[in-house]
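Any chance you could type out some protein's one-letter sequence along with its backbone structure tokens so I can compare the two?
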Amino acid sequence: MQLEVGNNLEGKITGITNFGAFVQLEGGKSGLVHISEIAIDYVKQIEDHVKVGDSVKVKVVGISPEGKISLSIKKVLEEEREEARKNPRPADVGMFTKQQKPAEMSFEDKMNKFKLDSDEKMLALKRNFESKRGSGRRGN
């Protein structure tokens, strides 16, 4: 694939500095992923997100006249997140894939489900509370 701004490529992390990570691309070229383009959330330590030798997907965000290549992992992650939001897979749909959807449940079914969930939570809470106070039985 040609090296053009906007292309998504695969690469391997070859070095990490305090300002970014160097990525070896296909064809022997390398580029820099600035620390602000490593992840969607705040990056304090680059090593918490990538390590030397990791394979990563990157987007070419710039090529300077001198040939320096600016890359972004963050933009690829944002694109994947947006794609997943637009086209959810059945496994991503949520807890209603094998059950009725709430809108299709009758009031009585909703109440029964609520009661079962509540009873399970109360039982777990009771067990936890009793285990902390020694089951409530004392020998006289």
